[in-house]
Amino acid sequence: MPLLRIEQIEKYYGNRSSLTKAINDISFTVEKGEFTAIMGASGSGKTTLLNCISTIDRVTSGHIYLENTDITALKGKELNKFRREKLGFIFQDHSLLDTLTAYENISLALSIQKVPAKQIDKAVKESAEQLGISDILQKYPYQMSGGQKQRVASARAIVTKPEIILADEPTGALDSKSAKMLLERFRALNSGSGATIMMVTHDSFTASYASRVIFIKDGRIFNEFNKGTDTRKQFFNRIIDVITLLGGDAGDAL
Question: Where do the H-state alpha helices sit in the chain?
């Protein structure tokens, strides 16, 4: 059974006099251990789709299932518990708390769940090692580079061992070297730890690190394909071909 099932979801914004259909009858599944990239031009609906999956936004119609839980039906305490235990979030803006060290930022989610201190320590150090940030755990955000902050944010997302990691333009604010380092860590998390990752991006280089790409246009799925046996360069070139068909700007693609 797929880990994630999206069934005929639609999302409208506005009122009767001015309705915008951001998502138009989208359905797909994601298997456990997949690394999926969602691509599309600005306004295509890709971020709205991720927001619906991450429960930040509610669908107008349709259903989203994670394992056997219909997340579109969750409310209140049930929804909060589900977010804490099942989802890991990584945003373009790292959203770290400035008054906490990297260690404290990463451990916060476990502290909220009342995990014993020894287990927290082990989990934080393990996730920090996976993201290559063991040497900055006692630093505050103002003492870190942009890439380091984003890797701390990523460690915070994986420390609870969520069912799925949701990343919204995670490399958007990074220079190319930091972006590549973060993406290499994502790929290692996916291949080494079996983490399921869904990442929204407008950048073809970023998407080429995934194992599957879904292209969204005008709120619908325009195309999708798997990396298969392609090298990353071959996969990148295939992505560029679809971006060209979508009418994308070469500046966005590269």
Answer: 46-53, 76-86, 102-112, 117-130, 146-158, 176-193, 204-207, 232-245, 250-253
